[in-house]
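To whoever is on call:

I kicked off a structure prediction for a single chain this morning and the downstream step that reads the tokens threw a length-mismatch warning. I double-checked the sequence; it's 144 residues and nothing unusual in it as far as I can see. Pasting both halves so you can look.
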Amino acid sequence: MTDTQHITIFTPDNDNSFELPLSDSKIAAGFPSPAEDNFYLKLDITKEIIKNPAATFYARVSGVSMIEDGINDGDLLVIDKSVEPYDNCLAVCYIDGEFTLKHFKRKKDHALLIPANKDYKTITVTEENNFVIWGVVRYVIKKV
């Protein structure tokens, strides 16, 4: 299976704030407990997920090479270009003219771009490749 992914990049709209009610009660994933309506706090989701607006972008995933990590076709990525790539980070990489989403692993004389789908092969990056880590994924937003 070839690894062709098309990632569309969007810039966030940091000019508009949108606050939603936030409960200060924990949400139980087991049996519900009688909880009072504690919706006094406000949360601005944009401020919560974007720490460096000038270096943050959104991208929509196209493809299934990361499906075993729960990242599906159509999911939305929040990418921060100011974050220093680290071992095994989830990164949007530009390699030989195409964007791809993979786990990044640095080796002594090369790098590996590791998919999360057994049907895809790990990509070995050498100095012969036109390669750059475009940004590190900070959040994956999905519709359930």
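Update from on-call: the warning came from a stale cache, not from the record. Cleared it. Sanity check on the structure: The radius of gyration is 18 Å.
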